[in-house]
């Protein structure tokens, strides 16, 4: 396993996760409240979709 690459990917994930909180801090509380109102099944579907998209992107990038 390429540990330095893993650390870079983890750092990029933190950056991407932090962007909305930094740029739209005043809106994030209402977004999070709306997420709390969503059914658990919807959140699971959203999470699974994000996971699958990530896996597809990683798979496709292997050929580059």
Give a description of the structure:
By secondary structure, this protein is mainly α. The protein has one domain. 88% of the residues lie in helices and 0% in strands. Helix 1 packs across helix 2 (25-37). The longest helix is centred in the C-terminal third of the chain and has 22 residues, at 40-61. The protein starts with a helix and ends with a helix.
How is the secondary structure organized here?
Layout: H1 3-23, H2 25-37, H3 40-61
Helix pairs in contact: 1-2
Query: How far do the termini sit from each other?
Result: 19 Å
How many distinct domains?
A: 1
Secondary-structure element pattern, one letter each = HHH
Summed over residues and divided by their number, the pLDDT gives a mean of 94
Shape: flat
Low-pLDDT segments, ≥5 res: none
Radius of gyration: 15 Å
What's the total number of strands? Answer: 0
Residues in helices, as a percent range:
over 70%
Which class do the helix and strand fractions yield? mainly alpha
Which descriptors apply to this entry?
single chain; 64 residues; mainly alpha; 0% strand
Q: Could you write a compact summary of the structure shown?
A:
By secondary structure, the chain is mostly helical. The chain is 88% helix and 0% strand.
């Amino acid at each position: 396993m390429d540990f330095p690459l893993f650390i870079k990917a983890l750092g990029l994930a933190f950056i991407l996760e932090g962007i909305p909180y930094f740029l739209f801090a005043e809106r994030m509380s209402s977004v999070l409240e709306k997420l709390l109102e969503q059914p658990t099944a919807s959140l699971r579907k959203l999470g699974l979709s994000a996971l699958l998209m990530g896996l597809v992107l990683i798979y496709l990038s292997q050929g580059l």
